[in-house]
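BUG: 3D viewer hangs when loading the predicted structure for this chain

Environment: internal workstation, default settings.
Expected: structure renders.
Actual: progress bar stalls at 90%.

Input used:
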Amino acid sequence: MKKLDKLILRAFAGPFLLTFAVVQFILLMVTLLKYMDDLIGKDLGWQVITKLILMFSVITIPTALPLAVLLSSLMTYGNLGEHHELTAIKSSGISLIRILRPVLLLSVFLAGLAFWFNNRIVPSANLETFSLLWDVRQQKLALDIREGVFYNGLPGITIKVNQKEGENGDRLKGVMIYDHRNGQGNATVILADSGRMFTRFGGGYLSLELFHGRTYIEQPDARDRAGASFYRQAFDRNLITFSLSSFDLSLTDKSLFKENKMMKNIPQLQQFTDSLHNKLVVERQQFPRQLNPYYVYVRLDTTGQTLRQRVENWQVPTTKLPVVNTNLLDQAENRVRNLRTYVGSSTEHMSNLAKEAGNFRIEIYKKYTQSVAVLLMFLIGAPLGAIIKKGGLGIPVLISIVFFIVYYVLSIIGEKYAREGVMPVASGVWMATVLLLPVGLFFLNQARRDSGLLETDIFGRFFRKFKLPFRSGYKKAVS
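Structure tokens produced before the viewer hung:
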């Protein structure tokens, strides 16, 4: 039996490693395409790009693992069935459950590993990834001066170039520079017939060497605002240097992102959820008492003095209603308007607290469901492979994609319903698992009975049963 276990595990290891690498690569490409607009044209360097790719690879592991288990288990038992190895093992008196046990135990180990990875590693990877991605999004585009377009990427400087020449576009024709670094508008304007552009001091500074031009400077008069001095200076050669420090990637303090639910593990999420729940309970208890000042009525006593009294049971007896007049009606209308505004804002605030607590609970349940999905995908893939008896990358890939899409869509729908309060949080997050579990048990039962559920012959026999009565009835009608 140990040799049998080794045989099955060796048959499972190859497809699993291959499918996991392929699925991981596909999910990584999808993630990179999602953020491609934030990465292109910013001259980030290979260190930043490599770190982002590595972190994105870590984040996508919990999603790639169930699909890899589904596809590899389907391929493994499909290959065993296609080469009649599964039939030979069963003929020796070994049940299908015993044949599935090695991969089942490995799937349990992978599910536990996925839970640990999702709870310990993924939050830290999310913190590293999205804090760096935030800094990348704030990063300005790399220096890109185009012909005939005003470029204002440099702080306090606007540059326009009519024509760029040379292999690297460093030869300039018709240069116009507006310098408003002094905060007085476009007080300095530089025009030049030609020039060249290059970087200095390790790329930290940009130098423009201008030829045959003029500098126009408008100097305001401190005593007379209406008056100003105007200077014009011609030059044959002028070297201007600008700092490129604004293009450097500045890193934000990571502690600012730690409050996000994606950056927390289960104990931290549970603690934050409990604090939100306790806060919500306290506000709900205080809400009726905070309404007391609004529920008063005004009456005039015999001396004509105005008295404010608390409404008992939120109703005013008809015998104590005041004499109707304009002032009292205005006061009542204002009080009702204020009450409606307060109730609306308080209700919205408590609803937002409940939704936020629900979002944190969803994140807790997702760490469990993504781990259980590994076992669920094995429960679907392994019996299905034993039924269809087809290996390779044809039918198994198609069936795996279909089931994974169904699981993914059901998970999104259930999570959306949980966020919007349509159904309880636990029911919404576990909906996909609960709905697909009977499907896996059905396939397991069919595999144990050696059912030809997905064989083409069984469908042919099924349709032939319906054709025979029609044919016999047709012959009788003709005769």
